[in-house]
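assembly run, all chains below
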Amino acid sequence: MDMKTRPAIDRLRIDGARLWASLMELARIGATPKGGVCRLTLTDLDKQGRDLVLGWARAAGMEVVIDKIGNGFMRRPGRNNSLPPVVTGSHIDTQPTGGKFDGNYGVLAGLEVVRTLNDHGVQTEAPIEVAFWTNEEGSRFVPVMMGSGVFAKAFTLEHAYAAKDVDGKTVRGELERIGYIGPQEPGEHPIGCYFETHIEQGPVLEDNDKVIGVVGGVLGIRWYDCTVTGMEAHAGPTPMALRKDALQVATRLMQEVVACAHRHPPHGRGTVGMVQVHPNSRNVIPGRVKFSIDLRNATDALCDAMDADIRGVAAKLTAETGLPIQIDLVSHYPAQPFHPDCIAAVARATEKLGYSHMPCVSGAGHDAVYMARLAPAGMIFIPCKDGISHNEIEDAKPEHITAGCNVLLHAMLERAGVAG
Amino acid sequence: MDMKTRPAIDRLRIDGARLWASLMELARIGATPKGGVCRLTLTDLDKQGRDLVLGWARAAGMEVVIDKIGNGFMRRPGRNNSLPPVVTGSHIDTQPTGGKFDGNYGVLAGLEVVRTLNDHGVQTEAPIEVAFWTNEEGSRFVPVMMGSGVFAKAFTLEHAYAAKDVDGKTVRGELERIGYIGPQEPGEHPIGCYFETHIEQGPVLEDNDKVIGVVGGVLGIRWYDCTVTGMEAHAGPTPMALRKDALQVATRLMQEVVACAHRHPPHGRGTVGMVQVHPNSRNVIPGRVKFSIDLRNATDALCDAMDADIRGVAAKLTAETGLPIQIDLVSHYPAQPFHPDCIAAVARATEKLGYSHMPCVSGAGHDAVYMARLAPAGMIFIPCKDGISHNEIEDAKPEHITAGCNVLLHAMLERAGVAG
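ok done. output:
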């Protein structure tokens, strides 16, 4: 057919209005008065959301498979079904005060790609699949990115099943209750390559006035607990020279956390988010200050360098002030670069479509991080208003929603190949 | 008699062993297992302590007067009883985890002065009085320094009476219950001049290896609440250049609180004791940081200069970063210089006795601050171990206890005059 010619394929565009309408319809399940969505994983509302999406998939002629952790795979066969599928997806669970787009956009963008291919009678060489992953948010059950993590064998199915919410309900029990324990063993499902479309959840694209972020990878994260020990004393009778003020040493190190990020550009990030001062009394010189350090960078080598940097600064501060500083690594997520072929496919699709774009990194985790351990993977970011996410006021422009989905369409077509 | 000759008077010394024994006996009332004292104001234990001290005073031939706020005045008449008395005193209430010396030393040192004068048959020209002031500590009822504050009309008797403890019991009710509402109107009691002997509650004397601190005055205090407002954002997706990190601006100002104290030597003090970070989450850039500022210096003019300094620094930080900083003055205690005559009397007594000494300031409030509003006043400090006070491990050396009391004896004798 005509659509199979290269120029015709190049002119293929998704239906932005249909995609937007689907997003708005899904967002009604768990809609909050402030315009957000509260659809926590494995609740009745999550079941309604899953049922709606799978209903749309079946209506689009797709085959549905659910695995034992409740991940859903919606398949559009290709010409050569012995090829591993080109997969896209994300999640449809939300934060308690979540928005309409986080995760949901990635799943419905995949569905819109399939609907578009159907409309135009395009057959791909490899099959195409759209996945939703169970409990990406982690706000009801930990760990986060649970479905994709079990799938990638980052942790076991049993571990995930045993996770409990605040009421003591387990993942296994809740999966059974909503009818989403499927027959397939997680991970026993081929992935040819993986794309995920997502709102940026940060301010970079908006700040640079770009429509598409070509995501090169996900930053590695190191989380530390840091404790500075001084000596409590009365603020009045203790002159400056005789103090062991833990907060004064701690605040210098807090400044250095940010300086350390600036010393490791362009992707170095350093944050102190949590501070506890002891005894936290107005007229007592702090005897102990505990605070968190969050360091991120694009490669593990750079994360190692930041680790050494901040430990070196702390050692110098201790040598200078005599106050001991303890730095404990409490969590560690390796950096995850995406596959050059997938990054290139996204970049080429964006170029072809004529959207403004820039290379970027993801500072937060996504299901794509686990998929990248199994197959070539890549991500497509679009701007979100003021960089705000995990918030009911999360917002994205319809034209950006459309653009990201068009990029997904063409990147997937490049990887899947057009039959004929 | 022989004692009335100048050389004999100069050789007069208190009985250090007797003073120490009295301190240890009083410390048994409310003694804690860790070696401290818990004798909160207006409790049954406070009544026992008051009764013991007044019993000792009566045994020493003193006349006892109690006023309506429970302040006790123990009087040793002089030759000329139309002269206003030379008064010394302090308090015998303690912190919940207090030590044996804070306050108690000042009262019992006064009693030991009287006992010594009795032993040697010394008659003074002016009468001598020893006072204990109700509720100096303020840990059960606020305001602190309640008895001396009512006496000096810093606030009214009614205001003090109405103060409630955590169980809702009032000062008036508790004073009545322990039988310590006396007939005298607070303040209607002449004070010729006032001395107070006290442990330093700081590390300066110990650090300088001096036995006596000749106290020039009490530092003025300014208490502020400070709030820096930024913008909460995820630590991952938000690059350094696009952050409004309230903590990074707050920590610079916290550093400047200490720098400001160093810019106003030798008595400038700057402390940040209390910090609240919002939302205080490991992977969220702080959107708001609230913290306390405590600035102290020896004169109100220097306190004003520190106030202007820190506000100027905050304004520069706001101009540089764009983050608003609000600084609210929440409490204000004026500086209280002591009277040159009393300071000189303490210095001369110390010189005469041959003790090592240094001029110093009090960084904390004492009853002497209110007395200085009514009459010439001065204080005598002795070292306490590691500068620690308001703690069960508070400690002082017997030889320092003795030395401070000898200084008190000779300073009071200078002011009272020896009859004959």
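Chain A has two domains: 2-218+335-416, 220-333.

The longest strand of chain A covers residues 220-229.

not gonna interpret more than that til we talk
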